[in-house]
Amino acid sequence: MPGNSIGNFFRLTTFGESHGSAIGGIIDGCPAGIVWDEKFIQSELNRRKPGTNQASSPRQEPDQIEIISGIFEGKTSGQPIAFLIRNLDQKSEDYKQSEHLVRPGHADYTWKQRYGLFDPRGGGRASARETAARVAAGAIAKLYLKKFDVFFSAYVSAIGPIELPETEKTWHSPQAIDADPLRCPHRETSLKMQELLAKSISERDTVGGIVRCYIRNCPPGLGSPVFNKLQSALAYAMMSIPAAKGFEYGEGFSAARMKGSEHNDVPEWKNGKIHFLTHHAGGILGGISTGDDIIFNVAFKPVSSIGQPQTTISYKGEPAIWQPGGRHDITVVTRAIPIVEAMAALVIADQLIEWFSLGNQFSNNHSV
Amino acid sequence: MPGNSIGNFFRLTTFGESHGSAIGGIIDGCPAGIVWDEKFIQSELNRRKPGTNQASSPRQEPDQIEIISGIFEGKTSGQPIAFLIRNLDQKSEDYKQSEHLVRPGHADYTWKQRYGLFDPRGGGRASARETAARVAAGAIAKLYLKKFDVFFSAYVSAIGPIELPETEKTWHSPQAIDADPLRCPHRETSLKMQELLAKSISERDTVGGIVRCYIRNCPPGLGSPVFNKLQSALAYAMMSIPAAKGFEYGEGFSAARMKGSEHNDVPEWKNGKIHFLTHHAGGILGGISTGDDIIFNVAFKPVSSIGQPQTTISYKGEPAIWQPGGRHDITVVTRAIPIVEAMAALVIADQLIEWFSLGNQFSNNHSV
Amino acid sequence: MPGNSIGNFFRLTTFGESHGSAIGGIIDGCPAGIVWDEKFIQSELNRRKPGTNQASSPRQEPDQIEIISGIFEGKTSGQPIAFLIRNLDQKSEDYKQSEHLVRPGHADYTWKQRYGLFDPRGGGRASARETAARVAAGAIAKLYLKKFDVFFSAYVSAIGPIELPETEKTWHSPQAIDADPLRCPHRETSLKMQELLAKSISERDTVGGIVRCYIRNCPPGLGSPVFNKLQSALAYAMMSIPAAKGFEYGEGFSAARMKGSEHNDVPEWKNGKIHFLTHHAGGILGGISTGDDIIFNVAFKPVSSIGQPQTTISYKGEPAIWQPGGRHDITVVTRAIPIVEAMAALVIADQLIEWFSLGNQFSNNHSV
Amino acid sequence: MPGNSIGNFFRLTTFGESHGSAIGGIIDGCPAGIVWDEKFIQSELNRRKPGTNQASSPRQEPDQIEIISGIFEGKTSGQPIAFLIRNLDQKSEDYKQSEHLVRPGHADYTWKQRYGLFDPRGGGRASARETAARVAAGAIAKLYLKKFDVFFSAYVSAIGPIELPETEKTWHSPQAIDADPLRCPHRETSLKMQELLAKSISERDTVGGIVRCYIRNCPPGLGSPVFNKLQSALAYAMMSIPAAKGFEYGEGFSAARMKGSEHNDVPEWKNGKIHFLTHHAGGILGGISTGDDIIFNVAFKPVSSIGQPQTTISYKGEPAIWQPGGRHDITVVTRAIPIVEAMAALVIADQLIEWFSLGNQFSNNHSV
To answer: Do A224 and A217 form a contact (C-beta atoms < 8 A)?
Structure first.
């Protein structure tokens, strides 16, 4: 199965290069009858747009979504939903100089190896521009999930060495998060991050970071062991985001340092249902959601295109210096927030539809 | 697509419960003509067997593989390879007492939610016993990959707070690794880990840990962007292993704290091919292998079945105490080594076959 | 995706060669809680067994099913159901003489081309023996579908030039069908067919035939346009049966000779639901079931292994004569009845689960 | 997996309604480096366009293809190829009157059952207009297959009761076929068909027909038993074409009336390769191509929208008369020619890529 589709039931296929006429996607499998809200989709796309804070590329794209199919009289029709986002602010000449160079940290070399050619204009298909299609599709998944009151809240929990205090690594409302220019929901930490970014800009360097995401109100029972476990599907989706380097859920890598007596979450009985007193498991046990918040982190590397000249070689092996032109972000994490949420929404929509396929119903699923 | 299959080309489907008559699997898509080596498969299964060191369960299973199909005159025939591993040492009575309890850290609750029932005998299908089928299948994938000289080396890099020194987090030979009782290739660290495990046993507790894995000699070009990237497929496979809580490749979560100028690997020209001076990327750029070693870590939580009584509730909400009977490991990481390698082998076999489907050939793939 | 799996939701993967130790399969995706009835599965297998009438091979296999997994306390557990059927009556020496010959009408040549080798013992994986696994799996699908009162009725409608009269090409009860030695539900026609078979035996020749199948009580709404239409899925499944040469539904090829005014089925209102006065469409419109009987035909070629010597060549091009040893059927259609039903049941189970995934429910689906 | 994708390797996903802004598709998995020929794609689309002969709808669409992605410097880039075909000549008002009626022979009723709603404008997604996307995608598959000299030749072999003489049911060149207004390569038969169509028009009725297709130069070895056999994949693809009612390959339904001694094709040795003296098998044995011409027939029903008033009911069960407005074909078979070829090309491209994945190469595949 070629690599540009994700999801077995609620399936997204994307297309488009950074400097082609448009990028876009098709969602096949979106149930019929979902109330259509194009403003919401556009607002999600706007959250991803560059140019909204100091950390992001000055490329200016309206990122206006154009819906081609799948909507009838204000509702989804059950047919494929195709959408386009036109590319307008293309500056291909920026990329001419580097065509023969192995650009450090970039995909050019490996894509050339796989496909025998590489479109150097803005990174072509390897550009993070393709994530706009993910955000649009994720917004459609969110529309579907709204019906079940499932929602998402991701925020920046670290930029470079600046991290949220442990006590703040908790649920934050999407409103509080979006109110911060870096989408870090703790003002004090955000200010330190802003300082760090200012320093990075002056050093013509870039920084990595960590996104933390909560998924609220999933029914228990999502996930399809033994391979398509909920955490497998989430890890797959997150690791496909450009620049992502790590995924962990619940205690994640910290769990490696814990004892069983510390890590096991103790169950409690509340309102006739089973919940857990602590959340080390991150809302997933045995590959299946517990009904509590699903919690995970995604680590992102620093942006590869830095403002300094870098030693490299040409494809023929000659020594060379690469100094990126083009327009680039200082860190990806702030713009990654809607992308992480979108990928999470695509995974949950997919798993929820599978869960329905087993004959499960919402009304009676929260007790055994 | 139901969850018990993995791989699009070299596809494994597994079956079987911990206390049924057998577990096993089918590999569909294994190319014809691979020289069959059942001893090798058995030796891989033996590496996973419990009872070989202080950290592991005393359950004794011969784990003898029985091949049902797909082999003809000493070679794979291109037809499905089905195999069985009989369950012999079953003690179902051990599990009777806990049937009505929500066992902390276990899958019982969530599986009941999903399927409406749960086989409590040894965790049924949720038991880590199913990983024996993964190891057998991974051994078949390794047989296929041997032809291309691709091989795997995973080791224990941390147990609880005891970690390998940074300088030792490098390639180690499989021989050196298997020579250590904990599969930690640094004697000094291994001894500290053994002390920690002795302490855990005396405390009737368990500990987590980290496995680090190297894949050597992959051709550049493996991975299918934008979703089925090599790291996505690896993350998916690793996160499906019981008790896995996190996946990272290259610098992983550490990349979040790095600058672009530090993280970018500088290319060099060696023997007419492109390599990299450093390995922060972990052998994957833009979702596609570079041809250098692929490097990743997997974090495992402490075993949930601890020797102490634990506070819990019954499925009806009554307070209860759970004290596991059964036979359990103190930490999973030592036995996880062949499992991590097996899952990696399954992913690489799958990606390699896809890479062939594009018309790629080994002879000329290492230069642009 | 390798070729030994069928179904997206209710997925069967099969394995095994004619003269290996066993054949078998895994069903992944069978919902939990289905009441298990192994006697029924065995009775379906018995319907397929050779040696029950004049048309069939004298090979004697008990075809005893062995269930390995997926059943707990008398019900399906939602986990993969693996099963084995041991091969006992193998006579491999029968096949030695033909190993170097291109056997007319057989798969040897093409399988050698694809896989580079071919297991000549009883046709290996290409033998119709693999259909026993289909029948077992189909019986499990039927167990699932019984819950919804969906059932199947296939019969022999033609052997060679002897055809059922048009007036008899209608629904017949499974009991009436199985009461006839050829599974032709019209005594007069069956007697003519028996004469024809007697003649074929005396001529050391074989004959083709046609199977007609009805599926009753499917809800309207099954089928997933625009590609995975219900007729596409049925055609795919039927054409995968060894010796099948054609598939048609409703009027099928006869529709080509009809006018629109004759072919269109006129709807009527009955018991508050929409039905159709005629059934030219075969119960499917626009790729989706109407709720009326689904009706289709499958054509089978004459058995390739005839009792006469046949002119052929060796793989090196030398002229040769092939005279099959082994044990073979005169016609496949009588034994094909449970196979056609099994494949239909697998398709309908698959489509029904997908239909549930869209949120459809049985209670309210029969009116708009 | 939702139903709007076809192919495992060379995968087409389509979208769009008859009266939306556009229809289109994405091909994912097209190998890189295929020389792009947009004129050829447009010429294939032109072959499908309505309004070119007496049998077809007067709807006038330029059917101009717009390529969005996947092409770089005149070649395919290995990335998804997305394309649009705008809808221009929409007359939605034509369809208003029938919205509440069950239109005989149409998909409205079943689609409403499945999705809870139906877009009545031109049949929405159920309209044959979606086949334009198939033809465009098939043209891209043909571009890929040209490299291997695989090509297709389909023609009209029957319209209503008028059939090609048996001696003419043989290979005909695409040029000879397209030279005939009905794409029937035998002038005498075509004239009779034209008379029949004239009569149908005068009677305000429609007629069915049969398309016969040849695929030339496939290597032996295509097809993936035991389920994804070449004939299964072809049957699936053909049966998904609107109005298709039957599929057969080689002798097809006629094989049911034949003896084994007649049906078996005798092999011969020619130019150091194995061929067959007759072609009853239709170029496929055991689910795998032989290397000889692949031959199949597809039956199409008469167009459901006839010019006469028809008795029907409303969705509430009230008696009604339906008289279609809109613009419709008298028979679909002439316009179905490029569609049948397109679907065949998609199947062969898919199978060929899988065949490469097994390590097969063109140079040495024609001998054992």
So the answer is: no
Evaluate whether C106 touches C128 at the Cβ level (below 8 Å): no
D294 burial via Cβ count (<10 Å: 0-12, 13-18, 19+): buried
Q: Which residue of A has its CA nearest to C225?
A: A79
Using the beta-carbon criterion (under 8 Å), do C32 and A358 form an inter-chain contact? yes
DSSP C226: T
The pLDDT tens digits of the residues spanning B340-367 come to: 999 999 999 999 999 999 988 875 443 3
Kind of pairing between the strands at B294-300 and B209-216: antiparallel
pLDDT at C277 over 70: yes
Which residues in chain A are contacts of D113 at CB distance < 8 A? none
Distance from CA of A231 to the nearest CA of D (A): 20
CA distances from A31 to A76, A79, A273, C355, D150 (A): 7, 8, 29, 11, 39
| Separation in Å, CA B75 to CA B137, B310, C38, C110, D307 | 16, 52, 35, 19, 64
Touching C: A residues 57-96, CB under 8 Å: 78
pLDDT lower than 70: segments of chain B: 51-59, 90-96, 325-327, 363-368
Structure tokens at B3: 């969850």
Q: Give B115-124 pLDDT, tens digit per residue.
A: 988 877 777 8
Q: Which among A76, A82, A80 is positioned nearest to A35, based on CA atoms? A: A76
Which residues on D lie below 8 Å from B353 (Cβ)?
Answer: 357-358
CA distance A75 to A36: 5
Q: Would strands C75-76 and C151-159 be described as parallel, antiparallel, or unpaired?
A: unpaired
Count helices and strands (H / E) in chain A. 8, 18
Provide, as residue numbers in chain C, all residues whose Cβ is less than 8 Å from the Cβ of A353.
357-358
Domains identified in chain D and CATH numbers = 5-357 (3.60.150.10)
Do D368 and C315 count as a contact with CB atoms less than 8 A apart?
A: yes
Using the Cβ of A291 and the Cβ atoms of chain B, whether some distance falls under 8 Å is answered with yes
Q: Is A358 on the interface with C (CB under 8 A)?
A: yes
Nearest to D15 among A2, A21, A26 (CB): A26
**Predicted ipTM?**
0.96
